[in-house]
Amino acid sequence: MTNAVIAVNSHHAPLPTVLGQGAPRIPTAGKIRAGIMVLTKAAASNTKAKEIYERGVKATLPFEDIEKEISAAVPELRNPLTPKNVPWFTVRPADFPNPEIARQIMEAFGEQRGDGERHLYKFPVVWPADAWQVVMPHELVAWGANEKKYWSEYSPDGQVRYCKCYAPVAKDHTGTRAVRVFGGRKTMLRTENNGVCNPESCAEYQIRQCNLSGRFVFYIPGIKSIDAIELHTNSFYAMNAAIQKFQTIAFMRGGRISGFLDGNQTPFYITKKLMNVPHIDSEGRAVRVKHWIIEIQAPVDVSALLRGKDDEETAIVNAGRAAQILEDTGQVYDTNCQVSEEPGNGHDSLGRTSDNAVAAENASETGAEADATVTATKAAQEPQTAQTATAGANTRTSARFEVVPNVEDILTLAETLGIERVRFDKYSVKKWGAGWKGNANGRTRVMRDVESYRDNPEGLSNKVSAELDVFA
């Protein structure tokens, strides 16, 4: 899953554009916060700071604004607010471009759990992409006064983690005027440590200026917004547990985590769970502290996800029957999409009277002489008609299934998508049975299944791994 990408609903990769060279990002507008901010012990003892805090909380102002107001009114309080871990999430109108969205979220999913106040303890979500790196972007980052100072970024092969920073703005030939920068500020490797991100030897990380920072990006079913909503977290345990959950679901769904979990429109849920979190104190001792940790839940019947594979097979059979009906070939397909004998009694596969039967009925109504003439003409044309009908049926069948692939073509395609031949062969026998290799329709079915993953090789890899490793 390290190099997962967004699955594009197209057989062709999108063309590059002037603004389309960056990593995929989901635009976000609204923000749900993981906890609250409270007054420090020193600030709580200050009457003026306490009054400003209580007034701001009542007016549902962002905690940043409350802190700025306190610092301006009481300059001696340098950092008057501190984070507090609580079992609910904070939804404030000021955190959304449309404050009405915050009200809708609280009305739909807010709960009262005995304290007399309505809080957001749990809410449904759907992920807008199949790559967990896109729906849960994260990095090690050190912030300056107004912007990011340093941040981590992996190499394209995912093997090396670099420490990046903004490059100095270049000057023009006069040396006095800054060069106009297109596409945002340029970045460069940090000069220290050859640009490699190593937290153990990083001064900023050791003094807690650089920390792990991530966010979940999602949509909430029933909340109408074209922009996604984000939920920030700095918890390694929350993000690590979420990755495991994403990977498990992806294995079961052929690489997919986006959208609803099943046909019943079951969403994921985000909630909190009280856990004993281990960490190393300043003296190097392992200690455990209770914290409310963000948890991703997927309340779905696992067997329903696995039955999705059977549904794919059913869809193939139904597609063959639908093609027969639309094209009116007169052929009948069995459950394995094999052409069976044509029905008799002057009726086609849909139970309709055939053209030959209609001609015979008309002939019987014109009298004996006409009947004899029609019979003679029909007998003379029957070999040619049968030959023409057979050729037409073969042409239509050939057009529908095109060239029947051989086993070597299928194994080669699977290999180009990153699946070893031996591994794919083992997977195909388990999924379709050993007989697919000697059956033309079986080979066509397998080729179509592999072809559908040309733009999403990660999905095929997850599907094979799920069949061979997870559910072996």
Structure description:
The protein is of the alpha+beta class and 472 residues long. The chain has helices spanning 41-44, 47-58, 63-73, 99-109, 132-135, 203-206, 236-252, 302-327, 355-365, 368-401, 407-416, 421-432, 440-451, 457-470; strands spanning 28-32, 36-39, 81-84, 111-112, 118-119, 123-125, 138-143, 148-154, 161-166, 187-189, 210-218, 228-233, 268-280, 286-297, 332-333, 339-340. The strands form five sheets. The protein has a seven-stranded mixed beta sheet. α2 (47-58) packs antiparallel against α3 (63-73). Mean pLDDT is 78; it is low at 1-12 and 329-401.
What order do the helices and strands come in, and which of them pair?
Blueprint: E1 28-32, E2 36-39, H1 41-44, H2 47-58, H3 63-73, E3 81-84, H4 99-109, E4 111-112, E5 118-119, E6 123-125, H5 132-135, E7 138-143, E8 148-154, E9 161-166, E10 187-189, H6 203-206, E11 210-218, E12 228-233, H7 236-252, E13 268-280, E14 286-297, H8 302-327, E15 332-333, E16 339-340, H9 355-365, H10 368-401, H11 407-416, H12 421-432, H13 440-451, H14 457-470
Parallel strand pairs: 1-12
Antiparallel strand pairs: 2-3, 4-5, 6-13, 7-8, 7-11, 8-9, 9-10, 11-12, 13-14, 15-16
